[in-house]
Protein 1
Amino acid sequence: MNDFAGNTCPCFSFRIKALARWTPRVRYNVCMEPHPHIDAHVHILPAWRLAGLMRWIHCAFPAHPVPEDIDRAHIESDLAAGRARLFFNLVYPLRPRETHRLNAFNFKLTQDLPHCAGWGSLHPENTDKAAATHRCIHEYGFLGMKFHPFVQEFSITDPAMHPVYDTLCALRRPLFLHTGFDEFYKMNMPPEQIAELARRWPDMPIILSHMMFPRMRETLDLMDAHPQLIGDLTNVPGSIRWRAGLNGKSFGDMPETQLLRRRLPGFADRLIYGSDHPAGMGGYADIYADFHALNLSRDLAQAILWRNPLALVHKYLPGRWRAASAAGYETDF
């Protein structure tokens, strides 16, 4: 497993070689949005974590257009140039000792940037997870908790994580969960595990980051069965574009594209999208060009890019982005 701090285990190298065949379109920091939008998936990290992440990205994708030496100021500049007026910032620790530092960093970021809404996290090996979760919600004012089970190396059904879920469920706060790309990570998260979480903690909304790509049909079926599930389309259009290139097909002819065009309207109020910047599927312009290539209706696109993430903040952090509006940030689509 890669630890995003500059070390890559031998078992990870063959995946990097396979992915290196993909060369993203080199277009960077170009505004593609006709309207301001909310970027629901951003990773502004402390310098020590950001440097490791970008070394890993450039090892896996040598032609990735985001500079390897990108820093916080550059990420903020990219968001502004790309018309991301508001954004979610996601962090998660790779080691138990990082938990407090990362959450404190994200709290300070949200204090510095009124247009940022933060998510907390913890490491699976941390003790007193209920207290840490309460601290993230009540002391730091985060929306909910974010986890990457594949990188953090844990199963979402591990009983050790139950205190987190119990706390979120009692507080009716969301869990933001990485899903998908199982083949790349050589790990597995069966849809039944997500269904189990949804059944056992019905008052805990669960955001399915990356829509379990490529198992989007199963994701949408899960969303049909469990109304507290929310789909995060981040990296999905870019992954379809990548697959289309590998198979010599057009984006519109891909079965995944056709599936999304057919079924996404049924979940219009339960979908969000973000860039995963600076570690997304290409440059900032590519990522939003990929989204618009889905050719969704204007109303559905506005719901995904603006109304739905805004509703999450208004629900869980009422007044948070009224402060952003007062500070001069655009808060209307």
Note: The chain has one domain: 38-318.
Protein 2
Amino acid sequence: MTGGDRMKTTWKYLILIISLLLVISLGSCGKPKAELIYWQSVSDSDKVLIANKMIDTYNKTNADFQVKLYAYQSDVELRDALDNALKSGKLPDVISISNSSVSKFISQDKVVCLDDLIKEDNSFKKENIYSGLFEQGMYEGKLYSLPFRADCLAVYYHKSHFANSGIDPASIKTWNDLSLAAKKLTNEGRFGIMLPAGPFELSATLWQTFFLEAGGEFFDQTSNNLAFNSKEGIETLQYWKMLVDNKSATLSDMNSQVNMDNFISGKVSVWIDRAWNLTKEGIKKNEDIGVFPIPANKKRVTFAEGERIYIFKTTADRQKGAWEFEKFVTSADFQTEWSMNTFNLPICTDALSNKEYQDFLSINPNLKVFVDSMDYAAGRPYIANYSQISNMLGSNIHDVLLGKTDAKAALDKVVEKSIKIIEGAN
């Protein structure tokens, strides 16, 4: 073979190799990624932008699926969309929503149980998730969800009120400490503390926190009914009534903004609420407002809640892709960035080892109180229509604090009606 022939043969091989590479390249470019549909309940447009940005990052590194976010303004709007999707047979792949909105889908075998996925995946460490949040995903002994975000309760207070009254917030460790401080903080133009009372979530959430601190258990071990009318429940409601009767506590307004305005303006010294209020105007740059943990009774508890992530049953490949996305959302990297942008709390303990996040908490000490409180977080029972029970509980608490009925009668009424609500949901 002459030199010219060898050159021609070499060029033929080169052209063949380049052609093959082009075919492979064009083939991979022409094959679009399958789309995973993710529905999220989020009312804040800024959070939607943040979520989309983080999902875009995930999509660039994921070889198989492209996650597409559809944001709904509320749980109610998302529940309606889910009901319509169930009728049409076109449920999304993944959703994040509150627990009470999904139980009927679990009972209809539409939601993927996560137990086997976790058991077969050595990369997922369930012990990194706060136990109080992890356990909220259990339904009839099986795990169906992981937390997407977290929030919990702590005590907001006016530093100047405490200083002028000679009270060190660090000294308030028990219910008795809180009641004594509230009395001392009260004067002619100011109440020591404001209690949420009425048919809304915060009223029931805070009362249940105190109920658990008193040693209460959600369910009666004999009847398996809600046990709000136990001696611990009565003790809790009587404690709140004492604060009202001695005029150191005022009751909240039905309008949450009015409540926040009353606190910010100094008409109230103490208000117990969630971490997300730290981003509100009047609080986020107010040097006079501090935060300390909820004081303990028989034990220390803070009520933690937040949307949770569920995977709907589709195909094996799509469910596997949804699980990979769920791991991404619950990872320390995602959770730290999400918390720094939204002031939601991370759902996993390994987020706390992130130096950037520790630096962030050092310049946001009020947020750090909430993050530290997650060590003793608890949550609501996994019951369908629980929001109805919460509203009813809040209304009956309100009646007791107004003196319309006594604690035992009100809580007996709540338990009796809750039985019918739970039966109606099943």
Note: The two ends are 85 Å apart (CA to CA).
Protein 3
Amino acid sequence: MTARFLSIGAAPKARSPENSRYRKSQSVWTLWENLVASEVRKMFLSAGQRPPLWYWRTTEGHEVDLLVECAPENFVTVECKTAAQVSLSDHGHLKILREEYGPASVRKAYVACRAERAYPLSKDGLCEAVPLAGEDGLLGRIGKMLPQKT
């Protein structure tokens, strides 16, 4: 598995970097992705833990923006999208990750987006669209995974 902390947003070859509209959307997308990863990282550091965060990308270019390691080869996956409304196809590489590492490799899958509240994306409940903040958001859900301080 290839892993690194943050994606800086590799530009697809079909889009021209000289296109100012593309550069602007690339900037927003990259900022959102880094904000999500930074906030999750900060949450682990605030709890006194080493952030178990990874980025997954295949040699074919399939990627998942953020993996939170729960156990060896068992993850919560996060795809970062700037849209307010997303669908299961926005976490399309989840299927490839599960095919490569097995269905048990993914504990839960989220698409962190600008939605006002969480909603399911898959019938089996594995994948949900979630806002970043709030108890029902990504940070609240991952925060529940952290050991409670006594």
Note: DSSP finds three helices and six strands in the chain.
